[in-house]
Each structure stands twice: as structure tokens, then as C-alpha cells.
Amino acid sequence: MTEHDYDSLGYNGMSKRLFAAWYDLLNAGVENRVIPYRRLTAGLANGKVLEIGGGTGANLEFYPPGADLTFVEPNPHMAVRLQRNAEKLGRSVTIAPGFGENLPFEDASFDTAVTTLVLCMVSDVESVVSEVRRVLKPGGRFLFYEHVVSTHKLLGIWQGLFNPIWKFATTGCNLNRDLSGEIGRAGFSQVECRRFSLSVGVPITIPNIVGVATV
Ligand SMILES: C[S@@+](CC[C@H](N)C(=O)[O-])C[C@H]1O[C@@H](n2cnc3c(N)ncnc32)[C@H](O)[C@@H]1O
Question: So what's the pLDDT on residue 3?
């Protein structure tokens, strides 16, 4: 994987560079609270594993030792950090430039797919989830941990109103997506999804989901 491999994606520029440079620092305040959900996603992966939007590799240390890891990551500055962090941990990984909406893999080629805090950022959630289902083998599992729109009407309205500012400040994260609905409608044979509130510091909590969808 070289930065040159990323030229054709056109997903570069200063905001992507800054997002990658600051991501771990910005996350540091909540990372301890997120770790249980990394264990419930990456930690339960098996076989040939595809992580979409791997970022700097925050899930790397949670994958079981035998997992065969492939990442799709469109941001070249994230990919460089992901590669470096994998080397530090002694993990052999494949990193592919690309988008979740159009995965560069054959049908039925993975046992597990993982997203953590990614579906809030992609351009087209329906396409990504449909691609996840396509590349999973029969019986394959999609393990997800995401933040979502609130089911509480007033909070949901507030998330919608605040979303443009939040999206701008975070270079593309959306607060107001119904991701459990998107996953539920995607044609998986079984979906288990738990909803909970993650405290990101008093008095703010963010609605989250964690779960598994089986092909
Ligand atoms: C908020 S970060 C999460 C990183 C990591 N999964 C984690 O848990 O810390 C979102 C990641 O998704 C990537 N991303 C954004 N749009 C994407 C897309 N359409 N397909 C795949 N990855 C995407 C971003 O480059 C970034 O690395």
C-alpha cells in the first residue's frame, strides 16, 4: 500500500489530512468508554475479516490472533497510520484503498465484516450495507458499533438541527442517521441489535447501537 495507490480515489486534501492527524487525540477522551464495544465487534470476529473504514486502526488490538485482517480505507492519511499501528502490534494486514459503497472484493469472500463509527460518515449507508452483505459468505456475520439518531422525538429533532454544524466540524460525521433501520432493511437473515446511551461526559449522552447481522 502506497499513497500512490490512493491517487485515483480523489479522497484527499487538507481536511482529510487533519482528520487523520487529530483523530486519535480527539477520540482519547471517549476511547475508554468505547472499548467494550470494540470487544463486542472486532473482538468477536473470526476467519477472513473485512473492516470497512478502519481509520488509524483502533480495533487492531481487539482482533483475535488468528483473524486474517483486510481493511478498506479511503483516506490515505488514515491508511498510513493504520499500517504503522499494525506493524507496532506485529499484525499482518492488507489495506485496500476504496469505499464501502463499492467494495473491491468478490462476492462471498469474507467470514466477518466490521464497522465501528463508520456508517455515520459514508455517503450512502444503504449501498455500504448491501455491499457488506454481498461480500460475506453464507452464514457470515456483520458486526457493527455505531452512533445513531435518538428515538426520543425532541432529541432527534435537536440532532437534525445541530447536524450541519457537527458535520462541518467533524469533516463528515452525521448525528442523525437511523442505522438500525438501514441494517434491519438490508435483507440479512437475522439481526440482533442493542441500543444504549454512551456518556461522552456529563451531561451529554449519545444514542448508540451494537450488534450482529447474519447473512
Ligand atoms: C470516525 S472514523 C472511525 C475509524 C475507526 N473505525 C474507529 O472505530 O476508530 C471513520 C472512518 O471511516 C472512513 N470512511 C469515510 N467514508 C468512508 C466510506 N465511504 N467507505 C469506507 N470508509 C469510509 C474515514 O476515512 C475514517 O477512517
Answer: 62
Residue with the smallest CA separation from ligand 1 atom 19 is 122
Tell me the β-bridge partners of 211. Answer: 144, 193
Is the torsion defined by CA of 103, 1, 38, 21 positive or negative?
negative
Which helix (H) or strand (E) segment holds residue 75: the answer is none
User: 189 phi and psi, to 5 degrees?
Assistant: -75, -30
**Ligand 1 within 6 A of CB of 116:** yes
**What is the predicted pLDDT for the residue at 1?**
64
Domains belonging to the chain, first-starting first, are 3-148+177-214 (3.40.50.150)
pLDDT reported for residue 112: 98
pTM (two decimals) = 0.95
- The bridge status of strand 48-52 relative to strand 68-72 is parallel
Q: How many CB atoms lie within 10 A of CB 201?
A: 9
Q: Tell me how far the alpha carbon of residue 73 lies from the centroid of ligand 1, in angstroms.
A: 7
Nearest residue (by CA) to ligand 1, atom 12, is 53
Compute the distance from residue 118 Cα to the ligand 1 centre, in Å: 5
Q: What is the pLDDT of residue 8?
A: 81
207: cell is 444514542
Supply the pLDDT for residue 11: 80
Cα 76 to averaged position of ligand 1 atoms, centre (Å): 11
Residues of the chain with pLDDT under 50: none
Helix (H, G, I), strand (E, B) or coil at 204: coil
**Among protein residues, the one whose CA lies closest to atom 13 of ligand 1:** 53
Beta bridge partners of 114: 51, 143
